[in-house]
Amino acid sequence: xxxxxxxxQFFLAVHTLxxxxxxxxxxxxxxxxxxxxxxxVWLGLSLVEIACTVALILPLLKFMKKQExxxxxxxxxxxxxxxxIYSVLHIHSGDPNNGPMIYWLVVAGICIFLxxxxxxxxxxx
Length: 125
What we know:
The protein is mainly α.
């Protein structure tokens, strides 16, 4: 099971880093549901995503000590919260295209699964 979690964690880190870099090169105005987010907050979210990426990768470099595993779980929960906030903003925007919201909810579900599994694994150490 831990090998599977490592794979999910690695791909989530890559996904999050790509999202952070995308935020630097694209505006929140490109997504109708996210137009309400101020540009400074948009850029701040990219910095949070970079920090989450580091927290997800750190256990890979430290061979999974308990403390770093908790950081990865917290990072996954932060990413899940961000995706859920995006989904709520999408619902309030009235945009009929539900594609982005479904994507955000799937990512949030993966993050919650990873965080829960990592917290349980950290307790068993």
